Every structure is written in C-alpha cells, then in structure tokens.
Amino acid sequence: MDLASAPQTVLLSRAPIDLRTVLRDMISKRIATGSLFLLAVLLFSGLPTRVFADTCAPSPVTARGEESRFVWLAKTKTRANWRAKVRAISDLGPDYANWARAENTEERCLTGPKGTVCIFTGTPCRP
C-alpha cells in the first residue's frame, strides 16, 4: 500500500464526537461553577469582619513612650510599651499584645525641642 492509496481521514476515537454536545457540557459546567461562586460571595459578604465579639478586651489600653529624637523611634518605643502593658494585665496576656490586631486605635505624637513623645490608645484583641 502506497501513500497515494491510503485513506486521508484519521479516526481519533471509535465514537464520533458531537461538537454541540461538547460545547453544551462545557457551558453547563461554567454556569454551574459561576453560580456556586456567586452563591458563596453572597453568603459570606453579609458576615461581620469579627465573628466572635469576645475576642477583644472590654476596655482600651493607653501607653506612653519615651522621648526620642526621631518620630519612627518614638512610635516603636510606644508600641513596645503598649505591648508590655497589655501582657502585664492578668486577664489579657501575650495573646492580646499585638498592636496590629488592636481595634479603635489612636496614635498621638507630640514633637518639641527635646524630641518626640507618643501616646497610643487601643483595645487589645486576640486572633
């Protein structure tokens, strides 16, 4: 058998493929996936950012830093003092001593001739 007399069609599978069926299945899967995603977004968008209200302390903690020549250093010292003060409170401890997780935070810094002093106030929260 030479190449000229060989059949010109190639059979990829035994069953013929119906393009309409394949496209319909693909579209159905995409619609189902999109619907599930949309349902998840709608369900979880109504949840509050904090699910448990008891993860924060009942009252805010205020700490004063030491005088410093630079504002960034005054803030660092004040943040360290705030963490130490929170860790020293018997009801809270180290789980609450993270300034980044605190709520209702306020950072006040005063700059004068001797340098900068900061006062941080925030409600400690645990993860």
Strand content: 15-25%
Q: Return Rg in Å.
A: 32 Å
N-C termini distance: 76 Å
Q: Strands of the biggest beta sheet: in what spatial order?
A: 1-3-2
Q: How many H/I helical runs?
A: 2
Sum this structure up briefly.
The chain is of the alpha+beta class and 127 residues long. It contains two helices and three strands. It has two domains: 8-45; 53-123.
Fold topology:
Elements: H1 19-45, E1 61-64, H2 71-88, E2 103-112, E3 115-123
Q: How would you explain this protein's 3D organization?
A:
With 127 residues, the chain is an alpha+beta fold. It folds into 2 domains: 38 residues; 71 residues. Helices cover 35% and strands 18% of the residues. The protein is built from 2 helices and 3 strands, in the order αβαββ. Strands 1-3-2 form a 3-stranded antiparallel beta sheet. A hairpin with a 2-residue loop joins strand 2 and strand 3. It is elongated. The model has no long low-confidence stretch (mean pLDDT 81).
